[in-house]
Write a structure and sequence with these properties.
322 residues, mainly alpha, 14 helices
């Protein structure tokens, strides 16, 4: 009986993780298609007004009104929410205007590699040689894609600013997720709901200022109506459902296993673009293979290295994803 229940839980968790990868992989093409009607700022604001509302309703139902109180941690939660939701999404969508959707998704798949570097900078603890080598290899793979087959193009200026903006956004998201463990009294849902609301407030302020100063257009109801399905897709399947599904997978499968599914994101994005007529270059395919191979190899290495300690030390709280 318990074996059957455990198998069913594992299967549902794997299914949820696959759904997350599919939803995130399609999000880039969907967002790019919405730019014909909405600029990245108003699109991001609409997405997270709806997405945050769903998180808040879920938190109220599951944990009650008291869970909405930040327990005196307003400032740090606002900073993290700004980095995780405002900086990551605004920089990603602005960069997406001049960056192919598959390339943007590949940068997202490099989050585990970026996490290693961010944690190294924060803790001053150097990662092991195999991990550092595989992280650098993953970054070479990304540079290969961004440089259209020539990784050195990143160093010689042969890359547009869009890719760099997306990479900067990824760093902001990694800082946000890597600090989730700093709030042990917060569930994943509570941390995500509160920071998403605070991050959405930042997005709203930036959007209003940019709109009133003439830096971005001020869309009317017709522009939002023309992008209704993109907003709905990005707010519900690609935000609320995907994050909850991934958090379930994180708990049931463990972070080391769940993160492997995120590596399906660029594969999904490349497949969608191929169906739309885009044919990836040899350089892009080589870069994708290098990055995914390095990230998966590092995950397998980390799982093996921590298998013995994991039997003694309880697993840490899983982190949310974009």
């Amino acid at each position: 009986m318990h074996h059957t229940a455990g198998t069913a839980n594992t299967a549902s968790a794997a299914g949820g993780a696959i759904f997350t990868a599919l939803a995130f992989g399609g999000m880039f093409a969907v967002a790019k298609s919405a730019f014909a009607h909405l600029d990245p700022f108003h699109l991001t604001l609409a997405r997270f007004i709806l997405g945050s509302a769903i998180f808040v309703i879920a938190l109220l139902v599951i944990e009650g009104p008291a869970a909405l109180h930040p327990d005196g941690k307003h400032v740090i939660l606002w900073v993290l929410g700004t980095l995780g939701f405002a900086a990551f999404n605004l920089l990603t969508y602005v960069g997406l205007q001049t960056t192919p959707a598959p390339t943007a998704s590949l940068i997202m798949a490099a989050m585990p590699a970026v996490t290693v570097l961010v944690v190294w900078a924060r803790t001053k603890t150097r990662p092991t040689a195999p991990t550092l080598g595989l992280v650098l290899l993953a970054l070479v793979g990304i540079a290969t894609v961004l440089g259209s087959g020539n990784p050195l193009a990143v160093l010689t200026g042969g890359i547009g600013p869009g890719g760099l903006l997306i990479l900067a956004g990824v760093v902001g998201w990694v800082i946000y997720t890597s600090n989730a463990g700093s709030f042990p009294g917060f569930s994943v849902l509570r941390y995500t709901a509160i920071t998403s609301v605070l991050g959405t407030l930042t997005i709203a302020v930036i959007t209003v200022i940019a709109s009133h100063t003439g830096h971005i257009p001020s869309p009317g109801i017709s522009q939002y109506a023309a992008s209704w399905w993109q907003i709905l897709y990005m707010a519900v399947p690609a935000t609320a459902v995907a994050i909850l599904a991934y958090n379930h997978a994180n708990r049931a499968l463990g972070p080391a296993n769940a993160v492997l599914f995120i590596n399906l994101v660029p594969i999904t994005a490349f497949a969608i673009e191929a169906l739309r007529g885009h044919r990836p270059t040899v350089g892009e395919l080589i870069g994708v293979a290098i990055t995914l191979g390095a990230v998966i190899a590092n995950n397998l290495y980390m799982r093996r290295a921590h298998r013995a300690p994991a039997e003694i030390i309880p697993e840490t709280e899983p982190e949310p994803v974009p």
